[in-house]
Design a protein that fits this description.
Blueprint lengths: L9 E7 L6 H14 L4 E7 H5 L6 H18 L6 E5 L4 H10 L5 H6 L1 H10 L7 H4 L1 H11 L4 E3 L5 H18 L8 E3 L29 H10 L19 H9 L3 H13 L4 H27 L2 H30 L7
Parallel strand pairs: 1-2, 2-3, 4-5
The structure holds tryptophan (TRP).
Length: 340
């Protein structure tokens, strides 16, 4: 008998457990995940195995942050009744699928992946690229396909990984001779990537330009105060530039009142509007956005047993789903079977 067809489309996405999540994650995908959990069957992966691909020297950090990221999920409004939160390293089917898929990907294709190229450069691996790192897109394909996810909400930097996933899906299905695996579609926010507070293209904890979701009111204030604006806008009366001005980029991302933002931009360009005034508006918006997230996080952190239960239950559900897919792939590929 076939397993019953899930009536809702499946979402799988995840985060490396290397540190607490930040505002870039929120804009980039957490917001989409919260919005889609009613209409989809959602799994969120605490990607500790993938985190190890460039943190093998610091497994303690990777382990500690499993629960930290789970807390961030709960804090932003992920509801464990609708979304299963699961631990990657507790799902052995993912590792086994990775081994199988590696045979359907060429080394040249791995080297061509633009995301990987950027990340290798950013990490300064030189010639010492861990093989696990080089191959993590294949492991990520295993993550996505093991859940038969058709929807993957991610930041735009992850789009090449979804493309590579779908190539693997087609090859494996081609080999098996029927569509056991499902192609996935990336859901990327319209706004694109949130820059760091220093104006660099990417917000990242390691670059020191991130605002974490658990930031205190003071930390938010300080981050906004330090935010990169227009370096030539020295006096309020000077005309200023809005493009590349992080404060305005953030207003575009967080201010619901588009007309008011348009007026502010016009005023800033004309001259007569100081950085402080715009920053005050942004500070207010971010305080309003982050205060309930911070409070809910603190509340959940007071009940570690509850958080563990959520992760345990989510992982158990994920285990059933991923084991079933692995069994289908093994059978489809015709691996040797000891048991009849
Ligand atoms: N690569 C993602 C990141 O850098 C994390 C991740 C792991 C993921 N497995 C995934 C994302 C599967 C989407 C789907 O945060």
């Amino acid at each position: 008998m076939h397993a019953p067809v899930a009536e809702k489309p499946v979402i799988l996405t995840g985060d490396r457990t290397t540190g607490p999540l930040h505002l870039g994650h929120y804009v980039g995908s957490l917001k989409n995940r919260v919005a889609m959990q009613d209409t989809h069957r959602q799994f969120l992966l605490l990607a500790d195995m993938q985190a190890l691909t460039d943190n093998a020297h610091d497994p303690d950090k990777v382990r500690r942050n499993v629960i930290e990221v789970a807390l961030d999920y709960l804090a932003v409004g992920i509801d464990p009744a609708k979304t299963s939160i699961c631990v990657q390293s507790a799902l052995p089917a993912l590792a086994e699928l990775t081994m199988l898929y590696l045979n359907f990907v060429s080394v040249a294709r791995l080297e061509r992946n633009p995301t990987i190229k950027d990340e290798i450069r950013a990490r300064g691996f030189g010639r010492d690229i861990p093989a696990g790192f080089m191959c993590y897109p294949v492991a990520q394909a295993a993550d996505i396909t093991a859940f038969k996810a058709s929807v993957v909400p991610v930041g735009e930097d992850q789009a090449p990984l979804i493309e590579q996933t779908n190539e693997i899906v087609r090859r494996v299905n081609g080999q098996i001779g029927r569509d056991v695996l499902v192609e996935a579609q990336a859901v990327i926010p319209k706004m694109g990537r949130l820059p760091g507070i220093d104006g660099k293209a990417k917000m990242s904890k390691s670059l020191g330009n991130a605002l974490s979701l658990s930031a205190s009111a003071d930390e938010i204030g300080r981050a906004v105060h330090m935010m990169y604006t227009d370096p030539n806008h020295l006096r309020a009366s000077d005309p200023g530039t809005v493009e590349g001005n992080v404060v305005f980029t953030y207003l575009d991302a967080f201010d619901e009142d588009g007309d008011a933002v348009a007026d502010l931009k016009a005023h800033y360009r004309r001259g007569g509007l100081g950085d402080m005034a715009v920053k005050r508006r942004l500070d207010g918006l971010l305080q309003t956005l982050l205060a309930p997230i911070r409070e809910r996080r603190a509340e959940c952190a007071r009940y570690p047993e509850y958080v563990l239960d959520v992760v345990r239950e989510g992982t158990a559900k994920a285990r059933a789903v991923t084991d079933a897919t692995l069994a289908e792939v093994r059978r489809g590929l015709g691996l040797f079977r000891l048991a009849s």
